[in-house]
């Protein structure tokens, strides 16, 4: 049996382009009919590692971080909403939306990996934040999301108090940063090559086609 193509997706739960990038990658995989030849693993990256527990209004946050005007932000939000709609994903931006801390979500994504539910939980977190107006730093939202994908919420949430689990996420974050990953999504193939950003579906198809062909010839 041929080895699967390993894809590491370095991303954050509250990163809109990570969602768009993944949905385009997913579409490329589906259109090529190679679902059974791909192994996806999500890797942690925090856009805002120092975000306090209360979070920050998104408009205020983007203005502070990037210097974007309100008009620029509205245009960007519309652009993302349109891109999401094409892929069957709803971005529901609203004035009171808050950027939140995602460290706990990353711990839970690591937990979900052992049960083969990492991608399912990742998309459930993303949907909760962008589509359902939920705060994915809150324990009740995390619990509800875990249950929605059929995971043991009590067992998973216990990981949030584990120093080992917290250290594991920090170590993984540092690993990718030391490799030069400083923007997300960064999509890494077989730990050898990578593309950054939400590339078009056809670009992903070309990359996947070449890598699968190369793998078959080995």
UniProtKB/TrEMBL annotation:
It holds the Pfam family DSBA. Residues 7-208 form the DSBA-like thioredoxin domain. Keywords: Isomerase. It comes from the Bacteria. The keyword Transmembrane helix does not apply. InterPro entries: DSBA-like_thioredoxin_dom, Thioredoxin-like_sf. CDD domains: DsbA_FrnE. GO terms for molecular function: isomerase activity; oxidoreductase activity. This is Predicted dithiol-disulfide isomerase, DsbA family. It comes from Winogradskyella thalassocola.
């Amino acid at each position: 049996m041929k080895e699967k193509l390993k894809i590491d997706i370095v991303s954050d739960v509250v990163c809109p382009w990570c969602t768009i990038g993944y949905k385009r990658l997913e579409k490329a995989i589906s259109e090529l009919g190679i679902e059974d030849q791909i192994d996806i693993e999500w890797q942690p990256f925090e856009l805002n590692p120092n975000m306090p527990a209360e979070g920050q209004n998104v408009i205020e946050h983007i203005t502070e971080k990037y210097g974007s005007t309100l008009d620029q932000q509205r245009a960007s939000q519309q652009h993302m909403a349109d891109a999401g709609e094409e892929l069957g994903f709803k971005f529901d931006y609203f004035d009171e939306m808050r950027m939140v801390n995602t460290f706990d979500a990353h711990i839970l994504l690591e937990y979900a990996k052992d049960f083969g539910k990492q991608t399912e939980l990742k998309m459930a977190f993303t949907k909760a934040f962008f589509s359902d107006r939920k705060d994915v730093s809150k324990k009740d939202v995390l619990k509800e999301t875990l249950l929605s994908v059929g995971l043991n919420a009590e067992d998973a949430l216990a990981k949030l108090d584990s120093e080992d689990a917290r250290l594991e996420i920090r170590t993984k974050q540092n690993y990718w940063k030391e490799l030069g990953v400083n923007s997300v999504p960064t999509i890494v193939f077989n730990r050898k090559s990578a593309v950054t950003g939400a590339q078009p579906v056809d670009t992903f198809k070309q990359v996947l086609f070449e890598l699968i062909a190369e793998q078959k010839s080995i």
